[in-house]
Write a structure and sequence with these properties.
Number of strands: 10
Bound molecules: adenosine-5'-triphosphate, magnesium ion
Largest sheet: 6 strands, mixed
Oligomer: single chain
Order of helices and strands: EEEHEEHEHHHEHEHEEHH
Structural class: alpha/beta
Strand content: 15-25%
CATH architecture: 3-Layer(aba) Sandwich
Length: 271
Amino acid sequence: MAITPPASFTASPFTGKTFGVTVTGLTKKFGSATVLRDVNLEVKPGEIFCIMGPSGSGKSVLLKHIAGLEFATSGEVRIGEYDAADPETRAKVHLALVFQAGALFNSLSVYDNLALYPREHRLCNEAGIRERVMHALSILSLEKAAAKFPSELSGGMRKRVAIARALVMEPQLLLYDEPTSELDPVMSATISEIIATLREQTAVTSIVVTHDRDLALSICDRLAIIMDGRIKATGRPDEFRNPKDPAIANFLTPVIDLKNPRFKQLENAHE
Ligand SMILES: Nc1ncnc2c1ncn2[C@@H]1O[C@H](COP(=O)(O)OP(=O)(O)OP(=O)(O)O)[C@@H](O)[C@H]1O
Ligand SMILES: [Mg+2]
Protein backbone atom coordinates (compact mmCIF):
# COMPACT_ATOMS: atom_id res chain seq x y z
CA MET A 1 0.00 0.00 0.00
CA ALA A 2 1.51 3.34 -1.03
CA ILE A 3 1.51 5.95 1.71
CA THR A 4 2.59 9.53 1.19
CA PRO A 5 3.37 11.56 4.28
CA PRO A 6 2.43 15.25 4.07
CA ALA A 7 4.65 17.26 1.71
CA SER A 8 5.17 19.69 4.57
CA PHE A 9 7.27 17.07 6.34
CA THR A 10 10.10 17.65 3.94
CA ALA A 11 9.67 21.43 4.22
CA SER A 12 10.07 21.33 8.01
CA PRO A 13 12.59 23.76 9.48
CA PHE A 14 13.86 20.74 11.42
CA THR A 15 14.57 18.70 8.29
CA GLY A 16 17.83 16.81 8.31
CA LYS A 17 18.10 16.72 12.09
CA THR A 18 17.35 13.51 13.83
CA PHE A 19 18.15 12.41 17.35
CA GLY A 20 19.28 9.25 19.07
CA VAL A 21 18.14 8.43 22.60
CA THR A 22 20.40 7.16 25.38
CA VAL A 23 18.98 5.79 28.61
CA THR A 24 21.60 5.26 31.31
CA GLY A 25 21.02 3.50 34.63
CA LEU A 26 17.38 4.61 34.77
CA THR A 27 15.60 3.61 37.96
CA LYS A 28 12.10 4.83 38.81
CA LYS A 29 10.27 4.39 42.07
CA PHE A 30 6.70 5.37 42.81
CA GLY A 31 6.67 5.40 46.62
CA SER A 32 8.01 2.02 47.67
CA ALA A 33 7.31 0.38 44.28
CA THR A 34 10.28 0.13 41.91
CA VAL A 35 8.92 0.25 38.36
CA LEU A 36 12.15 0.64 36.34
CA ARG A 37 15.38 -0.98 37.48
CA ASP A 38 18.71 0.19 36.06
CA VAL A 39 17.46 0.44 32.47
CA ASN A 40 20.15 1.00 29.83
CA LEU A 41 19.25 1.49 26.16
CA GLU A 42 20.73 3.15 23.13
CA VAL A 43 18.45 4.07 20.23
CA LYS A 44 20.40 5.26 17.22
CA PRO A 45 19.35 8.29 15.16
CA GLY A 46 16.85 7.24 12.49
CA GLU A 47 16.18 3.84 14.01
CA ILE A 48 12.81 2.16 14.53
CA PHE A 49 13.22 0.68 17.98
CA CYS A 50 10.47 -1.43 19.56
CA ILE A 51 9.98 -1.99 23.25
CA MET A 52 7.96 -5.08 24.13
CA GLY A 53 7.03 -6.61 27.45
CA PRO A 54 4.16 -7.89 29.57
CA SER A 55 1.47 -5.56 30.86
CA GLY A 56 2.72 -3.57 33.85
CA SER A 57 6.42 -4.16 33.05
CA GLY A 58 7.16 -0.41 32.82
CA LYS A 59 6.96 0.33 29.07
CA SER A 60 4.75 3.43 29.26
CA VAL A 61 6.68 4.78 32.24
CA LEU A 62 9.92 4.38 30.27
CA LEU A 63 8.41 6.19 27.26
CA LYS A 64 7.22 9.04 29.50
CA HIS A 65 10.80 9.51 30.78
CA ILE A 66 11.98 9.87 27.18
CA ALA A 67 9.17 12.39 26.56
CA GLY A 68 10.14 14.39 29.67
CA LEU A 69 6.82 13.65 31.38
CA GLU A 70 8.28 11.55 34.21
CA PHE A 71 11.50 12.12 36.12
CA ALA A 72 14.07 9.51 37.10
CA THR A 73 14.69 8.47 40.66
CA SER A 74 18.26 7.85 39.47
CA GLY A 75 19.99 7.65 36.10
CA GLU A 76 19.25 9.80 33.06
CA VAL A 77 17.76 9.98 29.57
CA ARG A 78 19.40 11.96 26.79
CA ILE A 79 17.93 12.96 23.43
CA GLY A 80 21.00 13.59 21.34
CA GLU A 81 23.07 15.82 23.60
CA TYR A 82 20.02 17.15 25.50
CA ASP A 83 18.71 16.03 28.88
CA ALA A 84 15.14 14.70 28.37
CA ALA A 85 14.16 15.93 31.86
CA ASP A 86 15.10 19.55 31.04
CA PRO A 87 11.97 21.52 29.95
CA GLU A 88 14.16 23.49 27.50
CA THR A 89 14.74 20.30 25.50
CA ARG A 90 11.19 20.44 24.11
CA ALA A 91 12.08 23.72 22.39
CA LYS A 92 15.12 22.11 20.76
CA VAL A 93 13.70 18.76 19.72
CA HIS A 94 10.38 18.26 17.91
CA LEU A 95 9.05 15.32 19.85
CA ALA A 96 5.63 13.74 19.39
CA LEU A 97 4.16 11.13 21.70
CA VAL A 98 1.20 9.05 20.58
CA PHE A 99 -0.39 8.21 23.94
CA GLN A 100 -1.73 4.75 24.67
CA ALA A 101 -5.26 6.12 25.19
CA GLY A 102 -5.05 8.86 22.56
CA ALA A 103 -5.12 11.85 24.98
CA LEU A 104 -7.30 13.94 22.67
CA PHE A 105 -8.99 17.14 23.82
CA ASN A 106 -12.65 16.18 24.23
CA SER A 107 -13.92 19.73 23.75
CA LEU A 108 -12.20 20.06 20.35
CA SER A 109 -13.22 18.50 17.05
CA VAL A 110 -10.85 16.06 15.38
CA TYR A 111 -9.79 18.86 13.00
CA ASP A 112 -9.06 21.28 15.85
CA ASN A 113 -7.19 18.60 17.83
CA LEU A 114 -4.83 18.26 14.86
CA ALA A 115 -4.63 22.01 14.17
CA LEU A 116 -3.81 22.93 17.78
CA TYR A 117 -0.05 22.36 17.67
CA PRO A 118 0.67 24.07 14.31
CA ARG A 119 -1.55 27.01 15.38
CA GLU A 120 0.18 27.40 18.77
CA HIS A 121 3.63 27.15 17.22
CA ARG A 122 2.66 29.27 14.20
CA LEU A 123 4.09 26.68 11.83
CA CYS A 124 2.13 28.16 8.91
CA ASN A 125 -1.04 30.09 8.02
CA GLU A 126 -4.57 28.62 8.27
CA ALA A 127 -4.54 27.46 4.64
CA GLY A 128 -1.26 25.62 5.23
CA ILE A 129 -2.59 24.14 8.46
CA ARG A 130 -5.73 22.96 6.66
CA GLU A 131 -3.61 21.26 4.00
CA ARG A 132 -1.46 19.49 6.62
CA VAL A 133 -4.40 18.44 8.77
CA MET A 134 -6.46 17.08 5.87
CA HIS A 135 -3.47 15.26 4.45
CA ALA A 136 -2.71 13.63 7.81
CA LEU A 137 -6.36 12.65 8.17
CA SER A 138 -6.40 11.18 4.67
CA ILE A 139 -3.33 9.04 5.46
CA LEU A 140 -5.26 7.52 8.37
CA SER A 141 -8.55 7.27 6.34
CA LEU A 142 -10.20 9.77 8.67
CA GLU A 143 -11.31 12.57 6.32
CA LYS A 144 -14.97 12.03 7.19
CA ALA A 145 -14.25 12.30 10.91
CA ALA A 146 -12.79 15.85 10.72
CA ALA A 147 -15.86 17.55 12.23
CA LYS A 148 -16.55 14.87 14.83
CA PHE A 149 -15.69 15.11 18.54
CA PRO A 150 -13.60 12.44 20.33
CA SER A 151 -16.68 11.17 22.23
CA GLU A 152 -18.28 10.27 18.88
CA LEU A 153 -15.37 8.04 17.79
CA SER A 154 -14.59 4.38 18.33
CA GLY A 155 -11.47 3.46 20.32
CA GLY A 156 -9.62 2.55 17.12
CA MET A 157 -10.58 5.85 15.46
CA ARG A 158 -9.33 7.81 18.48
CA LYS A 159 -6.03 5.95 18.19
CA ARG A 160 -5.76 6.88 14.49
CA VAL A 161 -6.57 10.53 15.28
CA ALA A 162 -3.75 10.52 17.86
CA ILE A 163 -1.33 9.23 15.20
CA ALA A 164 -2.57 11.81 12.66
CA ARG A 165 -2.01 14.53 15.28
CA ALA A 166 1.58 13.36 15.74
CA LEU A 167 2.12 13.54 11.95
CA VAL A 168 1.20 17.23 11.71
CA MET A 169 3.76 18.03 14.42
CA GLU A 170 6.65 17.33 12.02
CA PRO A 171 8.48 15.27 14.62
CA GLN A 172 12.17 14.46 14.76
CA LEU A 173 11.52 11.93 17.50
CA LEU A 174 8.30 9.95 17.42
CA LEU A 175 7.22 7.93 20.43
CA TYR A 176 4.30 5.54 19.99
CA ASP A 177 2.60 3.84 22.93
CA GLU A 178 0.66 0.82 21.64
CA PRO A 179 -0.15 2.30 18.22
CA THR A 180 -2.03 -0.78 17.03
CA SER A 181 -4.00 -1.80 20.11
CA GLU A 182 -7.77 -1.70 19.49
CA LEU A 183 -7.24 -1.77 15.72
CA ASP A 184 -8.37 -4.47 13.32
CA PRO A 185 -5.63 -6.45 11.50
CA VAL A 186 -5.87 -4.41 8.28
CA MET A 187 -5.59 -1.07 10.08
CA SER A 188 -2.76 -2.49 12.26
CA ALA A 189 -0.83 -3.40 9.12
CA THR A 190 -1.47 0.09 7.71
CA ILE A 191 -0.14 1.69 10.90
CA SER A 192 2.99 -0.47 10.69
CA GLU A 193 3.46 0.68 7.09
CA ILE A 194 2.99 4.32 8.10
CA ILE A 195 5.62 4.03 10.85
CA ALA A 196 8.07 2.42 8.41
CA THR A 197 7.31 4.85 5.56
CA LEU A 198 7.65 7.92 7.77
CA ARG A 199 11.03 6.78 8.95
CA GLU A 200 12.11 6.06 5.38
CA GLN A 201 11.01 9.47 4.10
CA THR A 202 11.90 11.71 7.03
CA ALA A 203 14.58 9.69 8.90
CA VAL A 204 12.57 10.28 12.08
CA THR A 205 13.78 8.24 15.05
CA SER A 206 10.81 6.11 16.13
CA ILE A 207 10.40 4.33 19.45
CA VAL A 208 7.41 2.00 19.48
CA VAL A 209 6.03 0.40 22.61
CA THR A 210 3.90 -2.49 21.47
CA HIS A 211 2.41 -5.89 22.24
CA ASP A 212 2.04 -6.44 18.50
CA ARG A 213 4.61 -9.10 17.67
CA ASP A 214 3.98 -8.82 13.91
CA LEU A 215 4.57 -5.08 13.96
CA ALA A 216 7.75 -5.42 16.03
CA LEU A 217 9.29 -8.24 14.07
CA SER A 218 8.37 -6.81 10.65
CA ILE A 219 9.31 -3.13 10.87
CA CYS A 220 11.79 -2.52 13.67
CA ASP A 221 15.56 -2.37 13.32
CA ARG A 222 16.06 -3.51 16.90
CA LEU A 223 13.89 -4.30 19.85
CA ALA A 224 14.17 -4.63 23.60
CA ILE A 225 12.16 -6.88 25.87
CA ILE A 226 11.40 -5.43 29.27
CA MET A 227 10.16 -7.57 32.14
CA ASP A 228 9.46 -6.41 35.67
CA GLY A 229 11.19 -3.08 34.99
CA ARG A 230 14.41 -4.64 33.68
CA ILE A 231 15.69 -4.99 30.12
CA LYS A 232 15.79 -8.75 29.54
CA ALA A 233 17.23 -8.70 26.02
CA THR A 234 18.00 -6.35 23.13
CA GLY A 235 18.66 -7.30 19.53
CA ARG A 236 17.59 -7.39 15.89
CA PRO A 237 14.23 -9.04 15.09
CA ASP A 238 15.93 -12.13 13.59
CA GLU A 239 17.64 -12.71 16.94
CA PHE A 240 14.19 -13.18 18.50
CA ARG A 241 12.82 -15.75 16.01
CA ASN A 242 13.70 -18.71 18.25
CA PRO A 243 14.48 -17.28 21.66
CA LYS A 244 16.23 -19.63 24.07
CA ASP A 245 15.13 -17.83 27.22
CA PRO A 246 11.86 -19.57 28.20
CA ALA A 247 10.32 -16.35 29.62
CA ILE A 248 10.95 -14.49 26.33
CA ALA A 249 9.81 -17.48 24.23
CA ASN A 250 6.58 -17.72 26.20
CA PHE A 251 6.00 -13.97 25.97
CA LEU A 252 6.52 -13.84 22.19
CA THR A 253 4.69 -17.09 21.42
CA PRO A 254 2.36 -17.88 24.28
CA VAL A 255 0.93 -21.37 24.28
CA ILE A 256 -2.73 -21.74 25.15
CA ASP A 257 -2.93 -24.76 27.41
CA LEU A 258 -6.52 -25.90 27.96
CA LYS A 259 -5.26 -28.37 30.56
CA ASN A 260 -4.02 -25.44 32.65
CA PRO A 261 -5.22 -25.97 36.25
CA ARG A 262 -6.80 -22.50 36.11
CA PHE A 263 -9.29 -23.70 33.47
CA LYS A 264 -10.08 -26.66 35.70
CA GLN A 265 -10.92 -24.23 38.52
CA LEU A 266 -13.28 -22.37 36.17
CA GLU A 267 -14.99 -25.60 35.13
CA ASN A 268 -15.46 -26.59 38.77
CA ALA A 269 -16.85 -23.17 39.57
CA HIS A 270 -19.59 -23.67 36.94
CA GLU A 271 -20.56 -27.16 38.04
N1 LIG B 1 2.03 7.67 38.19
C1 LIG B 1 2.16 6.44 38.73
N2 LIG B 1 2.11 6.27 40.07
C2 LIG B 1 2.26 5.06 40.62
N3 LIG B 1 2.48 3.92 39.93
C3 LIG B 1 2.52 4.03 38.59
C4 LIG B 1 2.37 5.28 37.92
N4 LIG B 1 2.48 5.08 36.59
C5 LIG B 1 2.67 3.77 36.43
N5 LIG B 1 2.71 3.12 37.62
C6 LIG B 1 2.93 1.69 37.84
O1 LIG B 1 4.10 1.32 37.14
C7 LIG B 1 3.98 0.00 36.63
C8 LIG B 1 4.31 0.03 35.15
O2 LIG B 1 3.31 0.77 34.48
P1 LIG B 1 3.32 1.00 32.91
O3 LIG B 1 2.14 1.86 32.61
O4 LIG B 1 4.64 1.50 32.49
O5 LIG B 1 3.10 -0.48 32.37
P2 LIG B 1 3.10 -0.97 30.85
O6 LIG B 1 4.27 -1.88 30.67
O7 LIG B 1 3.00 0.20 29.95
O8 LIG B 1 1.77 -1.85 30.84
P3 LIG B 1 0.62 -1.99 29.68
O9 LIG B 1 1.20 -2.95 28.67
O10 LIG B 1 -0.54 -2.59 30.42
O11 LIG B 1 0.33 -0.64 29.13
C9 LIG B 1 2.57 -0.47 36.94
O12 LIG B 1 2.62 -1.30 38.08
C10 LIG B 1 1.83 0.82 37.24
O13 LIG B 1 0.80 0.60 38.19
MG1 LIG C 1 1.46 0.98 28.77
